[in-house]
What we know:
The chain is about 40% helix and about 20% strand. It has 15 helices and 19 strands. The protein has a 9-stranded mixed sheet, with helices on both faces. Helix 3 packs across helix 11, helix 4 runs parallel beside helix 5 and helix 8 runs parallel beside helix 9 (about 260-280). The longest helix has 20 residues, at about 80-95. It starts with a helix and ends in a 16-residue tail after the last helix. The chain binds S-adenosylmethionine (SAM) and iron/sulfur cluster. Monomer. It is found in: Cytoplasm.
Amino acid sequence: MEDLSRLQALGLFDARVPRYTSYPTAPVFSIASCLALQEECLSALDPADPVSVYVHIPFCERLCWFCAYRTQGTRTLSPVEHYLDTLLAELALLRAALPVGIRMGRLHWGGGTPTILPPYLICTLAEAIKAAVPPASPFEFSVEVDPTLFDAEKVAALQSVGMTCASIGIQDFDPKVQAAIGRKQTFAATRRCVETLRKAGGVSLNVDLVYGLPHQTREVVAASLRQVLSLEPDRIALFGYAHVPWMAKRQELIDEAHLPDDRLRHSLFVECAETIVGKGYAAIGIDHFAKSADALSEALRRGTLRRNFQGYTADACQTLIGIGASAISRFPQGYVQNAVATGAYMQRIDSGSLAGYRGHALTQDDKLRARAIEMLMCQFRIDLNSLLSEFGALARTLNPIHDLIVARYSPYITRTADCIAIDSSGAALTRMVAAGYDAYTPAGVVYSRAT
Length: 451
Ligand SMILES: C[S@@+](CC[C@H](N)C(=O)[O-])C[C@H]1O[C@@H](n2cnc3c(N)ncnc32)[C@H](O)[C@@H]1O
Ligand code: SF4
């Protein structure tokens, strides 16, 4: 507890900082010349380098109160079908804008709830994507799965189009916690989903858990985690609940009086992490865990772990093409985000134009800071020699920041000739340390808590 008081004195419980799934973060993107940037980046792609593709499905059958994602509830398929037509139109526009011969190394469907798609739409969408950007070899295809909106026919359809990884939303199995976050999901239904996926074969399994939810106690979370571990997932993501009702209006339904206090919240993470690591999983970055044979563990060992919009990844592709409402593309030259509201996105595509609405052209200084931040988020250290060899003398411009960070966060941060390193006892400070390298403070933006 003494350490926790020191971390608290450094602002751990007060800081509101980005999660750094990109640098600069999306609120920094500006709307000027974004379509020109998108067209320029797409046409400049080198067909020799496979790209990754992300497709966003912003629909759910249920709208969980805790969820910070922008998604639309629907009980009927017609808005989903209409949206699918727009995705197909966007794919046709992309196909025309991309150089001939581009291949796709990875595909991810996220949301919202991609498993809201019935089997025929799963196949239609997958085939259209593969026609626009044919798969490379090897090819990986991951899908976010809601176990309450999933059946054997959907698994068969996903398997027939090449799914290799399913990411299953769990959060917490405790009925009182589930009632307080507006999300019912039994262990039995989740286990059925896992068994169906295992029976299909060839699919690695990730599960999402959340700590810091209302009514979570050490005992409640430990019991939930025992059930999760009995499912033997290949990866576990353990997210801190981001309570941001000013951005996600649904969260106003969450009773703040029942949220764990700062110290309990912190210990929920620490105790879960210890249990998961005790079961043989490797800790990956700030909030992921993976079995030792998993690609994330392998990437961590090799020093090739990356951070992207989905969290941590072993994906080495330089380019990520985002398709659908609010999807963000990352190019070597910069970022482009599609129109965020589903209606606005559909209008843009219907008018025959690509859907980029805001973006950011990366300067060398951005690239340097992005690399330093990614190193911190992935390896808890900045390799100074590697920055020097990648960026030359420009890397030295970070020296005053290194000094400041070391002075501010000592003894948790140390500097040697080769690196700036965060000690494991100060790992909770990582997002705050990363924020020290952020040159932007977008006006009016309040991020989620640092831990
Ligand atoms: C886009 S959601 C898709 C999950 C899928 N629709 C489901 O419900 O199973 C991906 C994950 O984001 C995480 N998430 C959503 N809202 C969050 C919040 N406010 N704080 C932390 N994690 C959150 C949850 O763990 C969730 O499983
Ligand atoms: S957690 Fe999943 S199902 Fe619930 S609202 Fe968010 S995206 Fe939709």
